[in-house]
Amino acid sequence: MFGIIFSGVGLKCVGFVTKHQARDDKNPKNREALMKAIENDLLNDENVLAVFYGGSIGSENTDLYSDIDLRIVVKEEVFEEYRSNKKQRARKWGNVLFHEDFPWTNYTIAHYDSFIKVDVFYYKLKDIQPSVWLKNIKIVYDPEGLMAEIHEKSQGLLYELSPIEFEIWRTKFFAYVHEAYRRVMREEMYYALQCVDYLRLSMASAWYMEAGIQPNTFGDWAKIEGKRSNLKDWQLSLLESWSCSRDPFEIMNVIKNMVPEFKRVHKNLCAKLGIHENPEWVDEIFNMVF
């Protein structure tokens, strides 16, 4: 169904109408109820050292579709038990439709029948160190002040681009350009489109690096678009313009259109890090495809 809508907390999606709007409008209330169930359970567990929220709850910028990024710090001697029972524990908080995870990891993503999902991570205290990722968190349980101290130390940390991070970024960009060409020539269009998507995300990461903002973990598009984006309007417009179908000419033209902005950002980041730009080398890499 197509049309123009929108929703309760200022979200806007032109051209799409959902039959689930009444349910979605209840998401904030259902999220609060789920958080209350989580806290009622965990805050009475003597093996839990701290409980806090990250993500949009920690940053206090939730919207209708925000999930719950839950972090649980437990005593070291019970960590493996709690990690192994991560799915069972999540079922105590509500009706889980399905879990999204790998059995050997320290996390599970529980999808509830209220359409709220909870990203649950278990930690030992020694695994949590001051970090830029811990600057915006909401601590709900911390009787010994352990997380409060880490949170306070995190406030003084700033993201700083490293030469290694920069080198990984630019060489992966080069690699995706070359790989997209190979996949187009093999008529593997979905593979080529995946490369295009990675190139778009690489450019968004570069804009974050240029602005001194910690980029998302690669593969994570959260908050890059939309009202909560840290990107400027012209960057969002440019990102939107790099759209294409399965047509091979479109794919290669979109990649070619990214190159001027890549070169601009690459030059600025080289200057910031004191690295030789070597534009001839960059051109040699791109000219193998274009």
From TrEMBL:
InterPro entries: NT_sf. This is Streptomycin adenylyltransferase. It comes from [Anoxybacillus] calidus.
